[in-house]
Amino acid sequence: MNIVALTGRLGADPVINNYKNENNEDGEIIYFDLAVNSYGGGEEHTEWIHCKAWNKTAKNFVDVAKRGDLIEIEGAIRNDRYTKDDVQIDKTFVIVKRFWVYKKNTDNPGMNKTEVAKEQDKEEF
């Protein structure tokens, strides 16, 4: 089973990109990096995790997530392979199925957890 759940900080404001799928239909996609901290040997280490989301999930994410926000994601790991400038590139991504954004509530100290996107189109996940 390919399921991943991560919590971290958004590295930059997400930007939506347009694309055409294999059926020549228009769609939207975002790529973003999530800074996830891990601890070992008494030290903290930050891993930058590459993520992407499509269509409704991408639109919802761009609407609410901003650089530095604490984000929780659920999804699946996928390895992509492509060629750029005659060089083969392998890259691992988390395909985001659901996400939550933690926002500070000025009326109540602490964080509010809000589920923003419920699911992504099945053919894209």
Mind sketching the topology for me?
Blueprint: E1 4-10, E2 16-20, E3 26-40, E4 43-54, H1 55-64, E5 70-84, E6 87-104, E7 111-117
Parallel strand pairs: 4-6
Antiparallel strand pairs: 1-3, 1-5, 2-3, 3-4, 5-6, 6-7
Notes on the protein architecture:
The protein has 125 residues and is mainly beta. 8% of the residues lie in helices and 63% in strands. The chain has one helix spanning 55-64, and strands at residues 4-10, 16-20, 26-40, 43-54, 70-84, 87-104, 111-117. The chain has a five-stranded mixed β-barrel. Residues 117-125 have low confidence and may be disordered.
Report a brief summary of the structure.
By secondary structure, this protein is mainly beta. The protein has one helix at 55-64; strands at residues 4-10, 16-20, 26-40, 43-54, 70-84, 87-104, 111-117.
User: So how many helices?
Assistant: 1
The strands making up the biggest β-sheet line up spatially as 1-3-4-6-5
How much of the sequence is in beta strands?
over 45%
In terms of quaternary structure, what is this? single chain
SSE string: EEEEHEEE
- The low-pLDDT segments are 117-125
